[in-house]
Amino acid sequence: MRSIGIEFAELVNLGCDLPVVELSVRYHKPVKLGMVVVVKTRMANSEGVRLDWDYQIQSLDGKELYVTAKVTLVTVDKEKGKIMRRLPPAVEAILTKLST
Fold first, then answer.
1. Domain segments of the chain: what residues?
2. Which tens digits make up the pLDDT trace of 6-50?
């Protein structure tokens, strides 16, 4: 989100929290203490209030893949503590920027 000028805290300030509801991790190779790695993320899908993200942890040169993961988040109304029925328009606009 930082790449498009949005901080996660801004989403929270809009009254929206994004807890993890599903997580799948696959370890390919160990990352050893002191290694510098690259973490890549991309929004894979957004369906209603469910947001699916793909993650990769790889070497700086991109030749070694250490971890892949899939994470599902849902939008929760921060004040009520309940899953939202639809995304707030401001949040939807931010996510649209991410998917383009």
1. 2-99
2. 777 777 777 888 899 999 999 999 999 999 999 998 888 777 778
